[in-house]
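Tokens as discussed.
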């Protein structure tokens, strides 16, 4: 295979290995192999290559999806950005201690805890100063959490003070959040009715304050911290008052729905957050070694209290008393012990919250507000510590239990490792940093290696986020993060929801070269899932320049980067999405340097991905951006891209077409310069060549290009369309209308209109529907234009001609476009008439760019489809029913049954009118590449995966079938082929019978457009579908592709089209993978012979017919690689080739000649031998079949309609043997792929060996559809490629008979 072909996949070929092993054995035993192939088979290297390497074709993503993007979810992508981000701008620290006086409902232990905000009131003689010191210290602790918050203290307040205090805070905070911290250790417990306590002015009484009033004073949003006994009472009553407010608001609304002035906004209080120290029936802990405000200490100084509590419960002695333990360092410096512990604590609490909380709740509490996030991290610690002391902290919104999370063990280890170093640090030794982050990264790496296919994110993800803050571990963390993001969109959204975006945005300012490749990869993944919400961020911080600088030649990657092309493709992808629908992005990105370098990358031969995204990036740079188009035209960028229309990769050809489409204007042709018009016409002329492309996505994009061109030059296109309509009227009325004066004749506009009409008869569903939308639009606009009256005259002329002929004027065999061609997928197709093709009239200079003599896809034929509905409506003249063939038992009309459609395709609703220009989905589809895993092997290569197991099972089954058949091949010429295996009632007249190699499938193609798939081993029909070839044509050949794995079915029909189907055996899942016009100018006659031969070893399809050429189509490239002159005026009727090397092929012709071609030489000299005459016996009639065996002795056998059978060796000029198999003519012939036997059919079915000896003779029993006393003759014959099984049927009979060799025991089918 060509090394540049990247769209194939290697698999083992047990079939090839077994066959060639057999050949080698036969060679060793002095037997022969024809055609001089012995030398090749004697080569161990050649045999090893054949046994181990095989290819699967048409299995890429573009075939699985037909280039259509995924349907967007109704709910849209997951929301990860905090659009309602808030700040806690003010904080009220309310301390009610009244030191020296204990509240009456609390009995303290002796000894008991005394510390408030780490201050011992007994060490300060003045209680007022002690209270002030506590308030000051508490404020300092809060300032560690948030320096930007404005703090105000209210120490031992009365009711008036607290009211004035709260109202003033809300006035200053406006709509932002307020923190309200309440320490009620010196007042009674909150009441069950919802009141907290403060003092009177003389501190002689406790005065209650209703929570309802407090809500009114503070408003919303707020976060409340309740540190007092029975704090759960406050939480429950607070929520009760909120519901009361909501009910009052509902009652205050007037009957007409208008809100009265007395109503408020009770729903706003639902956003309030509460943290309470204990439940309603609990008392705060009083352990003397713990502070009295243990809950507050956990919230505001978590490291100190966590270390103290760890030492208290540890059996180890750390050399100091608990109260003397001090962790050295600053909490903001991660290089010090205290800073590192705080860093680890943040990572651990984030991880606990991430794994236990719902995603929405996690975002609200841990990402929306820095103060709220800090308090809730520390609340997790409070939940752990206070539970040990018989207290259960309460929160609203409530959190699940977090005290037993396994990550707390990692925290205890980190604290222990820090404490054990305190003596060494006191002695002046250097601090040894914790291994926590390295160990967590290792755990993350292990998860990626063994658990990556799970959809549950790893618990270490928040830790990786924290590690990005460290320069030491940053590169490793980014590499692991990129591997995680590679798992798919769910992984990207998980990382974004955890808060990764600000970090990677900040890293774009880093000059480190080693970070560039991994950052580019990460940003490509992020942009692929949600680029719209990121565009403004990249613009604001000039982040886009990071990727443009990488693209420019003077900016290099790290020295050891080996994937430079892939990373440049990612940069092009990022810039393309940055500019997609974003004018500001186009403005800042567009530049001559960038355009020039993208043109250079678009010609990079070693990277199809870079070529594709260079084109797509250019398309987004100048789409609907006039300044960008001017710059592109100045740099001659469009002309530079034209060469890519012949790129070997279909995705690149499509991307180039997208870029050229984006360059076109959108109906502004009257406002642009002549230079612009010249370039646009030049591009249209270049895109015309894509009408012969084999890729459906390329042709579909060409139709999108033409739709935009039609809008841009609508007037000129209407004139060209009118000229074609005049030709149609002239053909119907048989009048000579002067059309040579039409100004569109010989112009690019006429050629474009001809191409659109050609596409309107395309076999690929989407191409056909898109083109018909364009035709409908043009006809509609023509009726609304000044040409409308003349169009009415042509209508009357065509009606008169139709009535005179008793048929619809020139109605094509396809479906009327305006309504019925958008039938639902899988539904029966409407019935269509058959009409003779007309010869197109167009400029010869432009026609050469399209194709000459395209009779089957005549532009006039395509116009008939829309004319029939647009002009005549429901008044269609009679005579449009599908034609019936008198010689056929088939009564099913053309178009009956399910017509397979392309994957992901959704047809436009019936009756709706398409809007031009058409919209392309290729750009969105291309972005999906960066959402798919690239670093992990494909599922089929992963041991134990379902796809791997299925492939392994198929490999074993295939080897078993081959090994069984090898032992039975000698019986083929010894036994009698009279053992009946069953009769299949196909209902319609079979025309082609083809067995699959390994699947128990028999494909039966009838004489119209029906394909039935049978399980011949069980005599059961699996499916039937419509091939959708036009009425009056038929299916002429059937082949299987990729038979070593999951086979596909290929059909060729007499109008020159080839269609390939996936899941052909399933009624519901059958899909059209690819379809194209393999031969042009064939016509719509059922008698037109179109023969094909598929070479699996090379991925090549040979197609011949009445066109005097044999076309060679390459499956990976989806292009015609050669048009080999047939050197005969007679049509090609049969093709066969060497299935191993694939260099030689033989064509049989209607005049009885055989020609040998060698693909290794120039196409003009490819015919190396011609066989016409033999000594005494000649093929005087058309060649029915010519077959070269895949295995066995590689015999080459031909059979003609006059009954002559010949065997050949390509090295000789005369047949090895010739004999007459049937004196009264022969109807069918087939050769077994491996056994030395062939079968012929006329009125009798005869089997022969290759020496011309008849080994058996049988008669096909007439089926129930055959008339009595009517002489029957064979219509079709087929051998199974491996089994000794044969299928046959008769003319005018819809049944298929299955036989096996009588010497062959049917043991296991």
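Sequence:
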């Amino acid at each position: 295979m060509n090394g540049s072909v990247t769209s194939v996949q290697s698999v083992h070929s047990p079939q090839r290995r077994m066959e060639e092993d057999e050949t080698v054995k036969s060679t060793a035993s002095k037997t022969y192999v024809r055609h001089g192939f012995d030398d090749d088979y004697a080569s161990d290297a050649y045999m090893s290559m054949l046994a181990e390497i095989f290819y699967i074709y048409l299995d890429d993503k573009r075939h699985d999806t037909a280039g259509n993007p995924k349907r967007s979810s109704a709910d849209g992508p997951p929301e990860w950005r905090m659009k309602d981000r808030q700040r806690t701008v003010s904080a009220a620290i309310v301390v009610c201690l009244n030191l020296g006086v204990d509240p009456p409902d609390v009995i303290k232990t002796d000894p008991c805890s005394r510390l408030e905000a780490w201050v011992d009131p007994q060490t300060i003689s003045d209680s007022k100063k002690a209270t002030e010191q506590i308030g000051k210290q508490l404020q300092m602790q809060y300032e560690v959490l948030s320096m930007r918050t404005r703090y105000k203290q209210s120490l031992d307040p009365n009711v008036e003070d607290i009211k004035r205090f709260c109202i003033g805070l809300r006035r200053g905070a406006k709509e932002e959040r307020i923190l309200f911290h309440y320490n009620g250790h010196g007042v009674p417990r909150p009441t069950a009715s919802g009141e907290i306590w403060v003092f009177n002015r003389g501190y002689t009484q406790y005065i209650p304050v209703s929570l309802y009033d407090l809500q009114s004073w503070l408003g919303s949003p707020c976060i409340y911290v309740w540190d007092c006994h029975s704090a759960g009472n406050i939480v429950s009553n607070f929520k009760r008052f909120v519901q009361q407010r909501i009910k009052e608001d509902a009652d205050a609304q007037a009957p007409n729905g208008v809100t009265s002035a007395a109503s408020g906004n009770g729903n706003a209080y639902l956003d309030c957050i509460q943290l309470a120290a204990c439940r309603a029936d609990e008392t705060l802990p009083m352990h003397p070694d713990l502070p009295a405000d243990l809950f507050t200490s956990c919230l505001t100084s978590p490291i100190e209290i966590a270390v103290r509590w760890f030492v208290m419960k540890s059996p180890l002695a750390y050399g100091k008393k608990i109260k003397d333990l001090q962790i050295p360092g600053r909490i903001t410096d991660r290089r010090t012990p205290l800073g590192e512990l705080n860093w680890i604590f943040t990572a651990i609490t984030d991880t606990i919250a991430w794994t236990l909380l719902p995603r929405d709740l996690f975002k609200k509490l841990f990402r929306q507000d820095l103060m709220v996030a800090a308090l809730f991290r520390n609340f997790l610690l409070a939940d752990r510590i206070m539970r040990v002391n018989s207290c259960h902290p309460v929160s609203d919104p409530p959190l699940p239990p977090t005290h037993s999370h396994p990550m707390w063990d990692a925290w205890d280890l980190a604290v222990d490792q820090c404490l054990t170093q305190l003596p060494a640090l006191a002695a002046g030794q250097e601090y040894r940093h914790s291994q926590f982050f390295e160990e967590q990264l290792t755990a993350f790496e292990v998860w990626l290696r063994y658990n990556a296919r799970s959809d549950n994110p790893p618990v270490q993800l928040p830790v990786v986020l924290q590690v990005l803050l460290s320069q030491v571990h940053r590169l490793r963390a980014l590499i692991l993060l990129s591997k995680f993001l590679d798992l798919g969109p769910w992984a990207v959204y998980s990382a974004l929801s955890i808060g990764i975006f600000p970090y990677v945005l900040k890293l774009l300012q880093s000059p480190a070269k080693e970070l560039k490749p991994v950052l580019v990869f990460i940003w490509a993944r992020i942009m692929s899932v949600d680029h719209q919400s990121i565009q403004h961020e990249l613009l604001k911080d000039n982040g886009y320049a990071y990727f443009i600088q990488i693209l420019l030649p003077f900016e290099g990657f790290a020295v050891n980067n080996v994937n430079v092309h892939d990373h440049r493709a990612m940069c092009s992808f990022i810039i393309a999405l940055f500019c997609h629908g974003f004018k500001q992005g186009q403005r800042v990105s567009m530049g001559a340097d960038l355009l020039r370098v993208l043109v250079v990358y678009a010609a990079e031969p070693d990277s199809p991905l870079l070529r594709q995204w260079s084109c797509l990036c250019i398309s987004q740079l100048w789409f609907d951006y006039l300044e960008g188009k001017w710059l592109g035209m100045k740099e001659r960028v469009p002309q530079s891209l034209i060469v890519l229309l012949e790129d070997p990769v279909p995705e690149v050809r499509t991307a180039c077409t997208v870029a050229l489409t984006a360059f076109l204007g959108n109906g502004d042709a009257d406002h642009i310069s002549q230079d612009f018009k010249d370039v646009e016409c030049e591009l249209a002329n270049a895109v015309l060549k894509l009408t012969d492309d084999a890729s459906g996505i390329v042709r579909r994009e060409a139709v999108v290009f033409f739709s935009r061109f039609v809008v841009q030059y609508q007037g000129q296109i209407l004139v060209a369309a009118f000229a074609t309509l005049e030709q149609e009227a002239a053909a119907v009325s048989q009048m000579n209308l002067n059309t040579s004066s039409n100004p569109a004749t010989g112009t690019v506009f006429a050629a474009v209109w001809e191409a659109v009409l050609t596409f309107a008869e395309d076999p690929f569903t989407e191409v056909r529907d898109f083109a018909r939308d364009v035709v409908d639009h043009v006809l509609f606009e023509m009726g609304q234009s000044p040409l409308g009256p003349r169009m009415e005259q042509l209508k009357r002329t065509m009606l008169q001609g139709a009535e005179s002929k008793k048929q619809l004027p020139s109605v094509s065999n396809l479906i009327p476009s305006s309504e019925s061609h958008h039938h639902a997928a899988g539904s029966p197709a409407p019935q269509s008439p058959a009409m003779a093709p007309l010869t197109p009239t167009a400029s010869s200079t432009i026609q050469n760019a399209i194709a000459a003599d395209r009779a089957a896809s005549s532009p006039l034929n395509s116009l008939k489809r829309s004319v029939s509905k647009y002009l005549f409506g429901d008044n269609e003249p009679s005579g449009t029913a599908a034609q019936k063939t008198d010689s056929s038992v088939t009564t099913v009309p053309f178009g009956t049954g399910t017509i397979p459609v392309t994957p992901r395709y959704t047809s436009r609703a019936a009756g709706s009118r398409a809007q031009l220009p058409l919209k392309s989905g290729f750009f969105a589809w291309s972005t999906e590449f960066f959402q798919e895993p690239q670093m992990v092997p494909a599922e089929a290569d992963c041991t134990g995966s379902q796809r791997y197991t299925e492939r392994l099972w198929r490999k074993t089954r295939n080897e078993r079938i081959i090994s069984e058949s090898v032992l039975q091949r000698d019986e083929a010429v010894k036994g009698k082929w009279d053992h009946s295996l069953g009769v299949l009632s196909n209902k319609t007249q079979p025309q082609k019978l083809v067995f699959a190699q390994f699947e128990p499938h028999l494909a039966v193609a009838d004489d119209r457009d029906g394909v039935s798939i049978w399980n011949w081993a069980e005599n059961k029909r699996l499916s039937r579908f419509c091939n959708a070839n036009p009425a009056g044509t038929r299916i002429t050949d059937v082949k299987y592709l990729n038979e070593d794995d999951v086979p596909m079915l290929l059909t060729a029909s007499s109008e020159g089209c080839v269609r390939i189907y996936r899941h052909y055996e399933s009624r519901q899942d059958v899909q059209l993978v690819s379809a194209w016009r393999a031969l042009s100018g064939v016509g719509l006659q059922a008698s037109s012979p179109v023969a094909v031969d598929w070479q699996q070893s090379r991925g090549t399809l040979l197609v011949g017919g009445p066109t005097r050429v044999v076309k060679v189509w390459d499956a990976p490239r989806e292009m015609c690689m050669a048009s080999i002159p047939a050197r005969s005026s007679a049509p090609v009727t049969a093709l066969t080739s060497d299935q191993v090397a694939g260099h030689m092929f033989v064509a049989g012709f209607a005049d009885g000649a055989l020609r040998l071609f060698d693909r290794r030489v120039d196409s003009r000299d490819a015919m190396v031998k011609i066989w016409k005459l033999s000594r005494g016996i000649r093929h005087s009639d058309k060649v029915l079949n010519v077959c070269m065996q895949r295995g066995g002795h590689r015999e080459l056998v031909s059979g003609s309609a006059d009954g002559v059978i010949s065997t050949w060796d390509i090295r000789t000029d005369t047949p090895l043997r010739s004999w007459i198999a049937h004196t009264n003519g022969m109807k069918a012939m087939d050769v077994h792929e491996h056994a030395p036997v062939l079968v012929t059919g006329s009125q009798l079915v005869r089997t022969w060996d290759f020496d011309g000896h008849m080994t058996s003779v049988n008669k096909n029993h007439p089926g129930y559809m055959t008339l009595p006393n009517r002489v029957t003759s064979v219509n079709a014959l087929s051998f199974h490629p491996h089994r000794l099984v044969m299928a046959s049927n008769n003319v005018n009979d819809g049944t298929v008979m299955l036989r096996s060799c009588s010497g062959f025991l049917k043991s296991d089918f």
